[in-house]
Design goal:
Strand order of the largest sheet: 1-2-3-4-7-6-5
Radius of gyration: 21 Å
Structural class: alpha/beta
Largest sheet: 7 strands, mixed
Oligomer: single chain
Distance between the termini: 33 Å
Length: 305
């Protein structure tokens, strides 16, 4: 179940980061069969303004005309790599069919690249795909398959611990992820651009905390991540309180509540909007399990009496 939680978080996270620079599609259907790619990013221009803010992640987004991102919470397997490549080739075939229908020729540079994001990958797996590295331009942890395959395996835990790799390291595991989250939290204090991003991280706390409270399968890495994210969340609230900005506390809670409602029910419509204030009056520990365990009908019944 935690795999789904992190998939959902990663899609929202990448969408939030890339939206200012182009078009982002998540869970995009592939016409050849009922399969989906996780995130497809198409830059608004070959080099959108300020995309270098995203560091190496931004560099991946504009490496080709478009970029497909397939993130994995656990170490990727050979079959999962082949599955991702199969989806990539389906996308290539669909673009080529469209080109033929329009009586045009598609250039190789117009085909998207696939970026497989995995915390680790065994030497055996990397060797089996005959990968190569380009440390001069990309550094450690970025493995290119043959040029015609347009596929790259990114092992997040091998990336250097620099500002350039921060947004990728947030998608790692264990200590790597916890440290990246701390760095992101510090940046968010001085960047309005990152406010929504750190909010998504807080939503991850909420979901994982609810799973933990229900004694579902939470591994050690996720338990430690919950503790670190909760600590950061509480620190921010305390800072707001110390500054006497009680309204800021309420806004923080409202944003979190609305985000979770949107994830669960697709949108915060007029009916759901009427219960947000009542939920925001509660503590995070109180409203989190309510939001994640009750159905839409149960929520409305409980707060609209």
């Amino acid at each position: 179940m935690t795999r789904f939680i992190h998939d959902q978080f990663t899609k929202q996270y990448l969408t939030e980061l890339f939206t200012p620079y182009g078009q982002v599609d998540t869970s995009k259907d592939i016409t050849s069969e009922v399969r989906q790619i996780d995130v497809l990013f198409t830059p608004a221009s070959p080099s959108p303004d300020n995309i270098e803010t995203l560091g190496m992640l931004g560099k991946m987004g504009i490496y080709a005309t478009s970029a497909i991102f397939e993130p994995f919470r656990n170490a990727v397997s050979k079959s999962e790599i082949r599955s991702c490549m199969g989806k990539l080739f389906d996308i290539h075939a669909d673009l080529e069919r469209q080109s033929k229908r329009n009586n045009t020729r598609i250039n190789e540079t117009q085909l998207p690249y696939l970026w497989i994001l995995t915390p680790t990958a065994s030497p055996d797996i990397l060797e089996s795909f005959n990968v190569t590295v380009d440390e001069k331009n990309w550094g450690q942890g970025v493995y290119f398959l043959g040029k015609g395959l347009k596929t790259v395996i990114v092992t997040i835990h091998q990336l250097p611990n620099t500002a350039e790799t921060l947004f990728l390291r947030v998608l790692g595991r264990g200590k790597v992820q916890r440290q990246a989250v701390e760095e992101l939290e510090k940046l968010s204090k001085n960047s309005s651009f990152l406010n929504k991003t750190i909010q998504l991280v807080y939503e991850l706390i909420a979901v994982l905390s609810a799973r933990q409270s229900k004694e579902q399968d939470i591994d050690q890495d996720d338990q430690e991540l919950i503790m670190k994210l909760s600590e950061i969340y509480q620190q921010q609230l305390e800072e707001i309180k110390q500054e006497g900005q009680q309204e800021g506390v309420v806004r923080e809670r409202r944003a979190m509540i609305e985000s979770i409602l949107q994830v669960r029910f697709g949108e915060v419509d007029q009916q759901l909007a009427t219960i947000v204030d009542q939920l925001a009056a509660m503590s995070r520990e109180e409203f989190t399990p309510i939001l994640l365990q009750l159905s839409r009908e149960e929520l409305l019944a409980r707060f609209t009496k």
